[in-house]
Please model this.
Amino acid sequence: MRGQLESVTPSPTDFDGSNAVVIGGSMAGLLAARVLSDHFASVTILERDVVTDSPEVRKSQPHARHVHGLLARGLQVLEGYFPGLVEDLQQHGAVVADMGEAMRWYTYGGYRVQAPTGLPGALLSRSLLEWQVRRRVLALPNVRMIDQCEVESPVFDAGKERVIGVQAARRNLRAGVHFYRADLVVDAGGRNAATPRWLQEAGYDHPVESAVRSNLGYATRYYRRRPDDLQEGALLMVSAQGPDARRSALVSPIEGDRWIVTLGGINGDHP
Model:
């Protein structure tokens, strides 16, 4: 998983469409690397945190401990990129079920009708899904991940018309800052993404932003799951019934014979 350090002097003549760099090694970064692997000779993922070959929740993933699910289209796309993924997820304890038939959904005073839709989804932890995807991405011969590597800034050409790579520091090595050249850089750093600031510092206009604030708060716990729990379906969802009733909940099965229970509330009515 740890690649060799690359330290070169940037030169526009080096670029031939063969190298891509992805900032961030979570789901967005991994899937970006998978797509880029079909178009570039070399793809390097630079991840700030320590990454191990196991299901894990890293420091930069605060939402990973809460409820997750993979809907039908997402499941289809991932299986297309990684044949056999669904079967492996099931072997590791994920529950794959038709969401229309499996979900007990309570909203506006009653339960919705359960009916087959032909749209299977996967119920599992975020860490299990990412681990299985990461193993497949890093098995590609032209993809590598360098962890404990923090990108400090992009590197522009002399006219600041294009990005020709990034400068990054290896946290586990006292080797200074290194230049990773790239014909394409993808910032998948999530909440820590610094691209808007970097572009503004380089003289570009700040992108227009819009925000919708729901004031949502939520909390999660895990419980042991027994075979006779929730006989009516695979999972339970309670929707917020706005505008006055502001609470919601999702009880979902995950690997390890566990329930993950996430309670949420909007507009300050937080669990």
